[in-house]
Give the backbone structure.
Amino acid sequence: MPPSYNHNTNGINLTNYRLLTQSGRNSVGRNGYRAPYEWALESVDQMGAGAAENRLSTTLRDASTQLQANANATVANDINIVDKALQTKLSQTEQLKNMLETCLAEVVSEIAELLSTRKRLEERNGKVQAKMGVNNNRLQTRNGRPSREMTMDEVEKSLLKQQGMLGSFAERVSRAVAQVDKEVAQLEAVRARLEADLRDKTEALRVDEAVLSIPTDPSVEGVLSPTFRGRAVDCSPKTPHTWVRHTEDNLRNAHHWLADSARLRKAIAHAIASSRTTEHDVSARLNENMMAKVAATRNLRDELSNQLDRVREEQARARSQRSALAGALEAKRGPLAQARERLAVRRARPCRETVNDEVEAALAREVANLSAMTQQLSDKVNAVDREIAALDLAAAQLTDNIGDKDEALRIDERTVMLDGRINLSQRPPSSVASFAMSDMSAPRTATLQRIRELEASLTQARRERENMESSIRQLKDSMAGPAGY
């Protein structure tokens, strides 16, 4: 076993031994002479001391050489460990950075989709407001109908139903726009956190790469360390688990809001498609009811006109008949007066000659017959006069009714064409009235295709999230090794 430093092979402390050999050997007697054994012993001691110093120096050199070798090996091992740790850290940071970039791209894309959805909602709300305006104008226009035509018909019911439906949908659109704005604000906050985390990861990569590029040879001067050393920030370090969990929490929160936003867009797309279908059905029924009302009013007006013509024809015949009756009545009044005159003259005979003979009976019968016929003719004239008055009243009522029908028909036709149609034969514009099935098929197909695309994107996002969680678990597992250094 080699002697320890500053001790000889016998374990004697060389410092103390040096003091002993260097002192007390130079003593001189009173007469100025030294003893011979002291003279000889001094040389022996000095030679022993020289040999001990040689051994001490050799031991020191060997220990120094071994220390230098150990120091070099330790430094090389430490540098190797640091390099491996830096490379592992760079790989882990790069993985997190890639996941952040992917997630950030999804968030930016989702924000763009939400803004596009908001624009579609605003456009849809504008169309709904236009429909409500047309619907309200139709209601106000129909309020100008004559009182006879103010009925709660199918047109009025359809207009009120459509107005309520459009108002309800406008409220839902407003709530959906507010929800989209809230969702965009949440995603913007998520985007800010992801961008901040990504900036930190990018800067951390740059710093670690700079650390890795610093030369380990002390003879080579580094040019990066002063720059980064001046930018050092005093902050409490995190544990590797906390470091990964912070990014993992940001990613998990981002995917939560991405899924929530996708569900919101899907619900809005479904609501818009459903509302379009409902509006199409309601508008189609409204258009059918309006056209049916116009046709019914026109037909009824024509029937009233035909009846008025028949009444007027009957009036003409009744007046002609009255003229004939009046002529016959006037023709019977002369003979009746003559018969009465003859009967009165014959009754002027003397009392002895007053006999109810055949002449008397014939004259009396003639007067009675003429009186009865005259009375009947007079009654007929009066009856015809009453009927003519009734016909006049019926004609007046029919005329008033026809006038109201004409006014109602004009208003109903104007009501129909308030949506921009030039004439009644033109098909209603799709923006405010019913849609043809061929016109609806393309938007409906596009909407269904968009819904399928959203479902596919949700599935893809779910898979990416599962892959990201798997990568994070692998990253945590890989970080378990450096923790033991």
